[in-house]
Structure formats: C-alpha cells, structure tokens
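Course assignment 3, question 2. Fill in each field.
Student: A.L.
Task: Predict the tertiary structure for the chain below.
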Amino acid sequence: MKLLVCISQTPDTTAKISFSSDGTEFNQSGVQFIMNPYDEWYALVRACELKESLGGTVVALNVGPAANETTIRKALAIGADEAVRINTEAQGSMHVAKQIAEYASDKGFDIIFFGKETIDHNGSEVGAMVAEYLDLPYVSYASKLELNGSTANLQRDIEGGVEELEVDLPFVVSASKGMAEQRIPNMRGIMTARTKPLQVVEPVAFEESTKLVKFTLPPAKAGVKLVDPENMDELVRLLHEEAKVI
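Answer field:
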C-alpha cells in the first residue's frame, strides 16, 4: 500500500502575528514554525498506523523552500518512510494543489492524506483541488478511516450525528479530530529520520489565477468590564448601549 501525506509548515499557535508596512507580506521575524497540527496529529499518524497494520510505505510531501526541511524531518521521525519537497514557495491553494497533483499523478498512491485545514489560512481547499486534478474521489473532514481490501469505510461528524461513507481506492481524504491520536517522536525515530531519503523535486510551471492584495488584522478586543451583581441597571444599560452582537 502506498500512502501520500501532504504536510504544511505553519506558524506556531502562540506566535505573534504581524505584517509588513504595506500589509502584503507576513512578518516572519522571531516566528517559530511547526508542522500543521491537523496534518501531523491526524493525517500523518493515521497513515503510519495503516502502514504498520497492513504494510506498505508512507511518503510525506511538502511544497516549500529548503527552510522547511526541519519540519519534513519531523514527519520522518514520526513514521514516514521517505519525504519529498517540491522546491518552490507555496503561493495560492491552486498553485500548491497543482504541484502535488503533478508529483502524485504517476506514483500509484492508494490514499492521499491532508489535514482538514491549515491553522494559518483555514482554507480547506487544497485537498479538493488535488482530487479534481487527479480525477479521484474526495472525502473531507473524515474522523475515522478503516480499510477492507480495496474499499475504505469512513465516518465524519455532522450536525446531530455521524455520516458513514464507503469509497474505493484510490481516493483523497482530509482528516479531522478523531482520525488518530498525536504521536511524539521517540529518540529512535529522530535518529533514523536523519538517514531516511528526502527527495527535492523542481516545480512545474503554473500561472496563479489569484493575487494577494492585503493582509489585515482583526480589530483589537475591548477590555472586560466588570459589573457589580447588585447593579442590574448598569448591566442593562451596557447591554443596550455598548454590547455588540456578533
């Protein structure tokens, strides 16, 4: 079984976010980067579990510059057998999807995994675009995945219940909470990751159809106002005059 896990590098969840003076570039100064948690905790770990129980190989793939290789090596430490870095700065979602699809098109992967979204852009777009490029079935936000021969049984949480799906291999899936449990790389994994293959692939030409105009930060949160529980008149006044409905 051949499994491909697409991983992204994102700012740490505690990073202070700021942009350049004209608002067109993310300021990376002093920012620590990590593997996107949805890719790491759910997609990558579930792929490794399937490999361990059924045999096969797990390939971790990242679209990005050489600076991302520390994050890629972590995927190898967790359990991926080999890794690929497509040597280009990630642009829009379609640009990334095109690079992944071109690489995967002739490799015979049984399942292509994504996390449900990245924690920086929250787009949930790339998996669906890759599936479209490759003309494969796509299941989004899956919380459970089991294999029965050449058929996969999946579940995803919906309003008021659970949806059950069945799909034939090969297919593309995005993983959400419940798919697997986070793994911490052990010392053996960290040491072996240094010797596992990391292939660098040059990108294919692609003309981006969208353009980033500007980043903006959300409005700063107002301070909390404490109201004496005995002063109901003041509470009512604040609710009428100052409270905002979101």
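Instructor remarks: The two ends are 48 Å apart (CA to CA). Residues 117 and 126 are 9 Å apart (CA to CA).
Grade: pending
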